[in-house]
Design brief:
Order of helices and strands: HEEEHEHEHEHHEHHEHEHEH
Distance between the termini: 44 Å
Number of domains: 1
Number of strands: 10
Radius of gyration: 19 Å
Strand order of the largest sheet: 1-2-4-3-5-6-9-10
CATH architecture: 3-Layer(aba) Sandwich
Strand content: 15-25%
Number of helices: 11
CATH topology: Rossmann fold
Largest sheet: 8 strands, mixed
Shape: globular
Helix content: 25-40%
């Protein structure tokens, strides 16, 4: 892809579909720094409203947005959904889009930034450990089940990309989640260990040594080392070997960029990531399970693998959105609509 093609992608995203709302917004122009098309710009009586909140989790401040449905009455009880964002993402991007769309259907929803990431606290920045991301989901359940109007007995969860893998892990033991859904699930442990599409199997030990050295350097008070830096030119992005990464950089660094969003993570996090897998003990999930992925996503194999292994529930479905790639499920209107149609039916039945 040449620079002109990249610019064409950007212009298409910000211009929007013919006759429709813009597909991306400049977060600096949105009072809630939301990046997605059709995002809330102000709270109005009788409409879906957004409520920025902070709460404590293991001593850290967690930043989150709670979306309440139209005509929200705190004296009534509403089904509620926790939405976990992708790796590198923040609550103002795709997690916010789906949280808002679900609130439009009558759900209370919460999209939170992972600890050490986005607007949440924690040092060093951008630690990305599975235990933390799983705890984020438990903590969101702690907070939202005490929010005005929430029916704690009708609590669901939606995990997107890396958040989907961590959702599978959290739902294994946290039986407060009565319905479990993932969108474009990304198995962070498998990819960090084996490489995307298992392309780095011959360098596992070398990369573990690098992670070990990075931790030793941190422990000695040295510079914190990072992996996944994303300061790339358009030509470098176009040369990436996998479509998910090419489109991902366009999404996170061009069309739906946000100052809190970064692909950077501490290299020492790999000590935890590379020995973890989203499908370990996935058979403990005994709740209704819906997994959604694009039929053309090069990450589809991760959802397919997890779905087969999730043998603890008979109420499960793997839904492929025809023609969609991984990143396109984040923002392309027809693919978002297809995902929402499945989620609408799923949560209506299970919550």
């Amino acid at each position: 892809m040449k620079r002109t093609a990249m610019k064409a992608t950007l212009m298409a995203a910000i211009a929007g579909a013919s006759g429709g709302a813009a597909l991306a917004e400049d977060y600096r122009k949105n009072p809630f720094t939301l990046t997605y098309g059709g995002a809330i710009t102000k709270n109005q009586p009788g409409k879906v409203n957004i409520h920025p909140v902070k709460y404590k989790l293991n001593g850290l401040d967690i930043a989150a947005n709670v979306y309440t449905p139209a005509n929200h009455d705190p004296k009534k009880k509403y089904p509620t959904i926790v939405v976990a964002h992708p790796n590198g993402g923040v609550k103002e991007q795709v997690a916010g889009l789906y949280a808002q769309r679900l609130a439009e259907l009558g759900y209370i929803t919460i999209a939170m930034d992972a600890a050490y990431q986005g607007g949440s606290g924690g040092e060093p920045r951008n630690v990305d450990k599975p235990a933390h991301r799983i705890e984020d989901l438990h903590g969101a359940a702690d907070f939202i089940t005490r929010y005005a109007g929430v029916d704690k007995d009708r609590l669901g969860v939606l995990g997107i990309c890396g958040g989907g893998g961590y959702t599978l892990a959290a739902a294994q033991s946290d039986k407060r989640f009565k319905a479990v859904a993932t969108l474009s699930m990304f198995n962070s442990g498998r990819v960090r260990r084996n490489g995307f599409a298992d392309s780095q199997l011959n360098t596992i030990q070398e990369r573990l040594q690098q992670a070990s050295d990075a931790r030793a350097q941190e422990a000695a008070g040295g510079k914190v080392l990072y992996s996944g830096d994303a300061d790339m030119t358009d030509e470098q992005i176009a040369a990436l070997p996998f479509e998910m990464y090419r489109q991902g950089y366009e999404y996170y660094w061009r069309t739906h960029a946000h100052s809190g969003s970064t692909f950077r993570y501490t290299t020492s996090s790999l000590l935890d990531l590379m020995r973890w897998d989203a499908t370990d003990r996935v058979e403990l999930i005994d709740r209704p399970l819906l997994m959604i992925a694009g039929s053309k996503a090069d990450s589809l194999y991760m959802s397919e693998d997890a779905f087969v292994k999730a043998g603890g529930t008979k109420d499960k479905e793997l839904f492929r959105i025809e023609g969609a790639t991984h990143i396109e499920t984040y923002w392309v209107p027809r693919y978002v609509d297809a995902a929402m149609a499945k989620l609408t039916a799923f949560y209506a039945k299970t919550l």
